[in-house]
Give the backbone structure.
Amino acid sequence: MTQSNNESPENWLNDYGDILYRFALARVRSEATAEDLVQETLLAGFLAFDKFSGNSTVRTWLVGILKHKIIDHYRKHSRELTLLNNDESANDVLAYQFDQQGNWQVDLVEWGTPDKSMDDEQFWLAFNDCLTRLPQRMADLLLLRTVDGLETEECCALLGFESDNQLWVTLSRTRVKLRQCLETNWFSKE
Amino acid sequence: MYKCKEIIELTSKGMDSSLPWATRMEMKLHFLMCKTCSQYAKQLQFMNKALGALEGHSHVHSENCQLSESAKQRIAKKMQQAKETVK
C-alpha cells in the first residue's frame, strides 16, 4: 500500500490531534495530561511509522497507540490515583431502588431495542456524559476492565482495591449508577 | 435464595468472571420469576456492548473541545525535533 501525502506524519497533528485529545480527555479528565498523551502518541507513531502495516487506517493505528499510553499512564500514576476514591457508594441509588429486604421497589423503564440507539450520535453524547458523571475511580475501573480488558488483579493494584470482592462490589455499583444515568438521560427521553 | 439486590451484583460479577454452576442455575431460575432482574441483566448486557463500541464514538464527546493552540505548537515543535533526530 502506498502512503498518500495526507497520511504523512506532518499532517497527523492537524488531522488527528483533536480526535486523540478528546479520546484521552474522556479517560484521564485532565487537560494537561491529555495533551501529554497526545504528544507521546504522535511521537511514538512517528518513530514506529515504518512498522505501520496499512491494514488499518492511520487514525485507528494512532488510537491503538494512545490506548497503550493511557494504560501506561495508569501504571505510572497508580499510587496518586488511589487517593482520589471518594463518593463511590451507590447507596443513594440502591436505597431508593430496593426495599429493606433487598427486593425491587421501582419499575425499570423499558429500553425497547437499545441497539438502535447505537446508530444515533445523540446517544453517544449521552453515554459519554454519563461516563463523565461517574466518580473517577469507578469510571477508570469500568473502562480498564471492560474496554481495555485488564485482569482483575492488575485493576486492583492500579486502582488501590484491597480485595477482589471490593472490586466486584464497586464494579456492580458503577453499573448501577451508569444504568440509572442512561435511563434518565436517554431512555426516558425517547 | 438470593434477593434481587444480590442478583444484580452477581449479574455484574458474572460478566467479568465465571460463577459457580449452582449460582448460575439459581440466577436463571430467579430471572424466570423476576421480570425486573431479567430486564436489568439485559440492560447491563447492552451497556457492555456499548462500552465495546465506545472507541469509535468517543469523538462525539464535546465536539467543541479541542487541543489548544499552545499545545498544538508545543507538540509540533516536539515532532519537528524528533524528525531532526531521526535524520
In short: Residues 52 and 61 of chain A are 8 Å apart (CA to CA).
